[in-house]
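Table S2 (continued). Query chain:
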Amino acid sequence: MAVVMRDSYHIGYFNASLFATEGIASVGPRLAPLLSAIVCGLLIGLGNRASSGLPEQFILLSGGLLLQVVMNVPLTVAVVSHGEAMMFLLWYVTPRDVVDQPLTRLVQGAGGGKL
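Corresponding output:
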């Protein structure tokens, strides 16, 4: 897709938008608005639900590269081969009560109360 844009507009290599790579290139211009918008929205909603209840700093640090990945590759490729599905799974299984505790309390609990 980037090569076609470079040849058409003569501005260098740029990635197409999310809906262009996921929609028009995959299912054509007629089904792109309906199908790709629903699938992309469901995937983003799934990640949002998996991360609910976790601290914002934890989500920002653990998923910081996901934005960069999604900006450079199509969403389905990011989910399948760049670890986005694994990140959503890890967010989902992370215990909410352990993440909310301060670090010193976790260390004291693991060492029997002595530092």
